[in-house]
Structure formats: C-alpha cells, structure tokens
Amino acid sequence: MRRDGERIRAAREREREAEARAAQEAERERLRLEDEERRERRRRDREIWRRWARRSLVPDEPDQGLRVTVRIPSGQRRMRVFPASAPVKAIYAFVETLSIPADQSPADDPTSPPEGYEHEWGFELATTFPRVVVPCAEGTVVGDVEVLRGGVVLVVEGSADDRENDEDEDEDEDED
C-alpha cells in the first residue's frame, strides 16, 4: 500500500513537471511569435517610411547645386545633385530610398509616414580621406557643411539592414 502511494505521488509529480514544461514551451512560442510579428511590423513600417521619404524628404533634383556621389556597401555609386538649401537629412533620406524596389512607382508613395514609427538612421555618411562624418543634425543644410561644397563622394558606413541583422543575432544569442 505504501508503495502504491509512492508510485501515485511520483506519477503526479511527473505529470506536474510535464505540465510545467508544456506551459513554459507554450510561453516561449507565444513570445517568439510576438517578436516575429513586431519585427515584421517594423520592417513594413520602415518600407512605408522610405517611400514616404522619397516623396516628402528628398527634393527634386535641381539643374545646379551640390553634387553628391554616394557609394553604398554593395560597391555601387549613385550620383545626385542637391540644392544648397536642402537639409542634410535629404541626403540621408536619399540613401534610404535606394533600397526601394524599382517596381514601386514614386506616384504611389504614401503622403504621410507610418503612424507611431520613429525612424533611426542605421548608417553614417562619411568622406573617405580624410574621413569626416557628415552629421545629420536637425536644421543643418547641405550648403553649410564644408566637406559637401564642390562635390564629394560619400561612403555609407553600415546600413539599416545590417543593424537589423545584428539585432536579430544578438537576440538569438540571448536565447541560448
């Protein structure tokens, strides 16, 4: 009789442990799905923001202005003329818009940014030699930045996509 009681207690304990493991696994899965959903929403908002920026932040190319060539991490170069009165933010926005697929027409770009989305530049623009970072400070205009006068080649250091991948890897390491 005593043995039967011990077996019953052991069986109940195993059952409780199995239920606890199942609950922990379900919670991990729920958190993983929430995180995946959050990342997807952030990616979608970033794409919408880039298209809005193309329409709203990147000025039309003037006949005359400051010529800026941007070398992106893939090695490609993109040249564009900016009015001296354009904010430096316009150059950063231009770089962001380079990742918009060609099949997405500017005519279809949204007229407002995604609600609640706070954009972060995932890169810096810098000259090659001497290395000078072009600051993206609020209120700074292209014509006021010494290194941009007379035309310049800027290198994109880092990218939003690289930053996202780094964050994903960091979070994966935390789970181990």
From TrEMBL:
<feature type="compositionally biased region" description="Acidic residues">
    <location>
        <begin position="163"/>
        <end position="176"/>
    </location>
</feature>
<feature type="region of interest" description="Disordered">
    <location>
        <begin position="156"/>
        <end position="176"/>
    </location>
</feature>
<feature type="domain" description="UBX">
    <location>
        <begin position="61"/>
        <end position="131"/>
    </location>
</feature>
<dbReference type="GO" id="GO:0036503">
    <property type="term" value="P:ERAD pathway"/>
</dbReference>
<dbReference type="GO" id="GO:0005783">
    <property type="term" value="C:endoplasmic reticulum"/>
</dbReference>
<feature type="region of interest" description="Disordered">
    <location>
        <begin position="1"/>
        <end position="44"/>
    </location>
</feature>
<dbReference type="GO" id="GO:0043130">
    <property type="term" value="F:ubiquitin binding"/>
</dbReference>
<dbReference type="InterPro" id="IPR001012">
    <property type="entry name" value="UBX_dom"/>
</dbReference>
<dbReference type="Pfam" id="PF00789">
    <property type="entry name" value="UBX"/>
</dbReference>
<dbReference type="InterPro" id="IPR029071">
    <property type="entry name" value="Ubiquitin-like_domsf"/>
</dbReference>
<protein>
    <submittedName>
        <fullName>UBX domain-containing protein 10</fullName>
    </submittedName>
</protein>
<dbReference type="InterPro" id="IPR050730">
    <property type="entry name" value="UBX_domain-protein"/>
</dbReference>
